[in-house]
Amino acid sequence: MVARIATILRAFDEDHDTLSASELAERTGLPVATAHRIAGEMVAEGLLDRDGRLYSIGTGLWERGELAAVSLRFREIALPFLLSLYEVTAENVHLAILDGQEALYVARLIGHRSVPTISRMGGRLPLHTTGVGKALLAFQDEAFLADFFAKPLHRATLHSRVGEAGLREELEAIRASGFSMTNQEMTLGNASIAVPIFTEDGPPYAAVGLVTHLNRSDQRRSVPLLKEAATGISDALGVSLDGGRRRWRDLLH
């Protein structure tokens, strides 16, 4: 039953935020009657909401999801630094963590001036086409990189880099400079700049970035601001309530 519930939850995504019982059945491979019955039980438990014939992720599930370590601790610690970065730049501010071989966006600040992006909180984007993704990818070990490049890479736009040799050269430059840049590699017209959040316990598993219109991208101004924010987050993550040090990855589990 737990596996079936998880299958139903995974049927929802950004493009399918509401689904009927028949659509749930189609996307999960469950019989319609089974999908309808389990969805009804999930509504009763607050895991799904129902409006007529359509189901959506329930507010009860969202409420419990906010208790996850990545929300309750990591994002809350990082938020003041992200707000300061947004106040200075008025651009899209992203905080992402490495999850598998993707960048998982755990915080996003936008404003009236910010350019549209396809990123969203709780969404995933490729490592090789995003600023935060490249900032994370560059500092992983060779075993991770070998596994990453063993699979074909998707080209999101004509400007996306998908060749291993070219990407490895770019990752080497990121390691040397401490920041990454992308120009129209995920969304046409947009540029991103990002830096990893370094800690004391191995490769970075989080990065902070800015996404701007290509014409407003300013590396000389943005990189120092991003590095200041990343250093502040790293320092805040490393201090526990009793004054001791802790592994920041413990905040995510």
Automatic annotation (TrEMBL):
Start and end residues of each IclR-ED domain: 60-239
Coiled-coil segments on the chain, per record: none
Domain HTH iclR-type, residue spans: 1-59
An example Gene Ontology molecular-function term: DNA-binding transcription factor activity
One BP term from GO: negative regulation of DNA-templated transcription
SUPFAM superfamilies in the cross-refs: GAF domain-like (SSF55781), Winged helix' DNA-binding domain (SSF46785)
SMART domains: HTH_ICLR
Keyword DNA-binding found: yes
Gene3D superfamilies linked: 3.30.450.40, Winged helix-like DNA-binding domain superfamily/Winged helix DNA-binding domain (1.10.10.10)
Alphabetized Pfam families for the sequence: HTH_IclR, IclR_C
UniProt keyword Cell cycle present: no
Keywords: DNA-binding, Transcription, Transcription regulation
Signal peptide: none
InterPro entries, per database record: GAF-like_dom_sf, HTH_MetabolicPath_Reg, Tscrpt_reg_IclR_C, Tscrpt_reg_IclR_N, WH-like_DNA-bd_sf, WH_DNA-bd_sf
Name used for this protein in its record: IclR family transcriptional regulator
Organism per entry: Homoserinimonas aerilata
